[in-house]
Write a structure and sequence with these properties.
Layout lengths: L1 H19 L7 H17 L2 H10 L15 E10 L5 E5 L7 H12 L2 H11 L11 H16 L10 E11 L3 H5 L6 E10 L5
Antiparallel strand pairs: 1-2, 1-3, 3-4
Helix pairs in contact: 1-2
């Protein structure tokens, strides 16, 4: 019984991740997979079964084995001189005092996987099916970017400088590129946000 439930959860989470991936295509087969996943989710929602899966840890999900493996995101904060428009300084993460702060920052960057989905939906003119795929949620995520950017106005006066934040998706090298020793990182620009200081 335990193995059967694990297989069901694996199947459900893998199909769910595939639906969110960039390689997802709508056809008869994927339509069938979606219907089958819906039946599995409904079965796993049975009260006693749901509690058992939670206690035993079965419902943790195994979507990370699916095509939609989490991507790495990099946030670059650039400080410019207002007068000359020269780039004064570039930062890739705030000056955290603890390792825990840095770990939480990297966890926060992981949330921008949803921001990528929103941008893909806009590009493909696809209607958002969930709140996490909507423009409103994208604006909510952008607040984090602006908050991080505003931190630097503590050191760089807003009368003399302005801050710009750029969100990049790290493009991992393909297998054939790795074999050919082409390992230079490629950053794909997703967002560019001009950060204005809070009004006093």
């Amino acid at each position: 019984m335990q193995i059967f439930l694990i297989v069901l959860v694996c199947f459900s989470s893998t199909v769910d991740s595939y639906e969110r991936s960039s390689s997802y295509q709508k056809n008869e087969f994927t339509k069938y997979l979606k219907e089958l996943k819906g039946n599995v989710v409904e079965f796993n929602s049975i009260p006693v079964l749901k509690q058992y899966e939670a206690i035993s840890g079965i419902n943790a999900g195994y979507g990370f084995f699916a095509p939609n493996v989490a991507s790495a995101y990099i946030l670059k904060v650039s400080v410019y001189d207002k007068k000359d428009k020269d780039n004064i300084k570039v930062f890739f993460y705030p000056p955290f005092k603890t390792r825990e702060g840095l770990n939480r920052y990297h966890t926060l960057l992981g949330y921008f996987q949803d921001r990528l989905t929103i941008l893909e939906n806009k590009l493909n003119k696809k209607k958002a099916e969930e709140f996490k795929e909507s423009d409103k949620y994208g604006e909510y995520l952008d607040i984090f970017i602006k908050s991080i950017g505003r931190y630097y106005y503590k050191e760089y006066n807003s009368d003399q400088y302005f801050v710009e934040c750029t969100l990049y998706l790290y493009h991992y090298p393909l297998l054939r590129e790795s074999i050919l020793q082409k390992k230079e990182p490629v950053l794909i620009q997703l967002l560019n946000v001009n950060v204005n200081p809070l009004k006093k």
